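Quarterly update from the structural biology core.
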Amino acid sequence: MSVAKVTEIIAASPKSFDDAIEKGIARANETLKNVTGAWVDGQKVSIKKGKIEEYRVILKVTFVLKD
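Predicted structure, tokenized:
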């Protein structure tokens, strides 16, 4: 029987929410082993002088713990 853990990460991109998600998942895969899924828990933009400067996402990442 597997046991999984969920951790929260925040990722950002100057391009888009999709790019922020991809960067967050890529970084999670570098640090965590056995990543099996993720979901977006929130989205936010950083605005400077009336324009979007950065897209941010809060990701909940699931990974399976080793036996």
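The CA atoms of residues 58 and 64 lie 20 Å apart.
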